[in-house]
Amino acid sequence: MKILLNPAFESLRTFVKSVPGFFEKEGRVIYKGRNEIKVFKVGDIEINIKRYKVPMLFNRIIYTCFRDSKGKRAFYYPKQLLEKGFETPEPIAYIELKKWGLINYSFFISVHSPYTHTFYEFGNATEEQYFEVIKAFAHYTAKLHNAQIFHKDYSPGNILFDKINGEYHFCLVDINRMSFGEVSMEKGCENFARLWGQTHLFKLLAVEYAKERGFNQEECIQIILRSRKKFWNKYKRKHLVKFDLDI
C-alpha cells in the first residue's frame, strides 16, 4: 500500500492507513457509479473519500509505469488552484493498492466541501432564477482561464457554489483532469458545453464571459452554442437528457 499524506493532516495518518479496510462497510454514500464517494466524520472534520474503480488492464499498466493515476493527480492539482486563490477541497491523502505489481483500487481523501448547490439546478431554470449566479460564474470562469487553469470535465456536478455574505463562491471538485497554460477564446468558450441550461442561459454566460476576457461577444455566443449543440447531440444518442434540450 502506497500512501501520500498532506503534512497538514499528519494527525489523521492512522485513519488514512485504515481506509481500505473499512471503506466498503462504513460511511455515507453520496455517489455510486464507476467510482464511489463516501463522507466520514473524524472528530470535527467531515472527510470525503473517493474510491476509484480498478482500471482496465491497459490503463493499469499505464498508471503503474508511465503516468500518474487519477487519484494521484487529484492529490497534487489542488495546490495549484489554492495557491492562485481558487477554491477546491483541501487534499488529505492518496492511497494506492497494487495487485500482481499493478495498480488496483486507489483512494483520494479530502476535506468535504460544505457547499450545497451544483449546476444541475439550472437545467430548466428561468432567467429570474439564474441571472445573478450565472453572471458571477461567467466572471469566475474568465478569471480561472486568465490564470491559465482549465478544468477538462467542467460539468454540472463538478462545480459547487453557495451565496455567502451576498457574494457567490464557487468550488471545483473532481479535478484529476486539468491542464495548465494559455486558454484561447475558442477553448474557453467550448469549456461550457457540458453544462445544463437553456439557450438564453448560455447567451448570458457568453456575453459576461466575453466582457471579462475582452473577447467579441457575438463570437463567444456562436462558439458556446455550437459546442453545446455538438456535445448534447452526441450525448443524447446513448443517454437520457434530464432537462429540456432546446438546440
Overview of the molecule:
By secondary structure, the protein is of the alpha+beta class. The chain folds into two domains: 2-111, Phosphorylase Kinase, domain 1 (2-Layer Sandwich), CATH 3.30.200; 117-235, Transferase(Phosphotransferase), domain 1 (Orthogonal Bundle). Helices cover 38% and strands 26% of the residues. It is built from seven helices and eleven strands. The protein has helices at residues 13-22, 57-65, 70-83, 127-146, 185-190, 199-213, 217-235; strands at residues 2-5, 28-32, 36-42, 45-52, 91-99, 102-111, 117-118, 149-151, 159-164, 167-172, 178-180. The strands form three sheets. It has a six-stranded antiparallel sheet, sandwiched between helices. It has a three-stranded antiparallel sheet with strand order 7-9-10, with helices on one face. A hairpin with a 3-residue loop joins strand 2 and strand 3. Helix 4 (127-146) packs parallel to helix 6 (199-213) and helix 6 (199-213) packs across helix 7. It is globular.
**Beta strand count:** 11
Rounded mean pLDDT is 95
Give the biggest beta sheet: 6 strands, antiparallel
CATH class of the largest domain: Mainly Alpha
- β-sheet strand percentage: 25-35%
- Output the helix-strand order: EHEEEHHEEEHEEEEHHH
- Could you say what the CATH architecture of the largest domain is? Orthogonal Bundle
Q: What is the CATH T-level topology of the largest domain?
A: Transferase(Phosphotransferase), domain 1
**DSSP helix fraction:** 25-40%
| Count of distinct structural domains | 2
Distance between the termini: 49 Å
- Overall radius of gyration: 19 Å
What is the quaternary state of this protein? single chain
Strand order of the largest sheet: 1-5-6-4-3-2
Residue runs with pLDDT of under 50 for 5 or more positions: none
Our count of helices gives: 7
